[in-house]
Design a protein that fits this description.
Layout: E1 3-7, H1 11-21, E2 28-32, H2 35-44, E3 49-52, E4 55-56, E5 59-60, H3 61-69, E6 76-81, H4 85-95, E7 99-102, H5 107-118, E8 123-124, H6 126-136, H7 150-160, H8 165-172, H9 176-190, H10 195-204
Parallel strand pairs: 1-2, 1-3, 3-6, 6-7, 7-8
Antiparallel strand pairs: 4-5
């Protein structure tokens, strides 16, 4: 029997995922509402599939995804989030996700993604596929934030969450000077001159972490 771990900080969403997947067959489920709970469950049991939200208490979901995929015999991960998939979808795949489903999608699309993953396939939603196709055709207008490296994106998320420079440095194992350099570089790339402008840019482009 497949073991599926659901990591989402909303009980309602965890219940909805379980109810939907039970229509596909019998599975053994585990639930976690925080990074710490998920980490404990993953250390306790092996899992076949992880349903993962981008925003979870204790750790950014994409960072946790990278941790999961760095493990030997890592489970397959389906990211389900309220974040704009044009922003986070590609980054999720780069971090090792097998699929990305936006929470605004219907149950049918979620189940389609689960079915694909259960047979060892990846799942790319129609809307994300359109964005990728447009990019390949070169008629996709590249936004400044899409040029950020993964490290720059990590620093950006922490800055807009209000984390102090020293705290960011400790979390990412960097010096405060290096984080400050990233801050200046981010503002140059995103063409903003202050932290409030940086936050406003992130709000306008769907980069702010939000509940769900």
């Amino acid at each position: 029997m497949k073991r599926i771990l659901i990591v989402d900080d909303h009980q309602l969403m965890r219940d909805a995922y379980k109810h939907a997947m039970m229509t596909l067959g019998s599975y053994e489920f585990g639930e976690a509402g925080t990074y710490q709970e998920a980490n404990a469950l993953m250390a306790e049991h092996p899992w076949d599939i992880v349903i993962l939200d981008v925003t979870i208490p204790g750790r950014n979901g994409l960072d946790f995804l990278a941790e999961i995929k760095a493990q030997p015999k890592s489970p397959t991960v389906l990211v389900c989030s309220g974040h704009d998939e044009s922003v986070y979808g590609v980054r999720a795949f780069k971090a090792g996700a097998a699929g990305y489903v936006c929470k605004t999608a219907g149950t049918g699309e979620f189940l389609k993604a689960v079915k694909e993953i259960l047979i060892g396939q990846n799942y790319i939603s129609p809307s994300l596929a359109q964005n990728l196709a447009a990019f390949v055709r070169s008629d996709f207008q590249e936004q400044p934030h899409t040029t950020l490296s993964e490290r720059e994106f990590q620093v950006l998320r922490k800055l807009i969450n209000g984390d102090p420079i020293k705290e960011i440095a400790a979390q990412l194992n960097l010096s405060s000077k290096t984080v400050s350099t990233y801050r200046v570089r981010l503002m140059e790339k995103l063409r903003v001159k202050s932290l409030p402008e940086l936050v406003q840019y992130c709000i306008q482009h769907g980069l702010m972490e939000k509940a769900g």
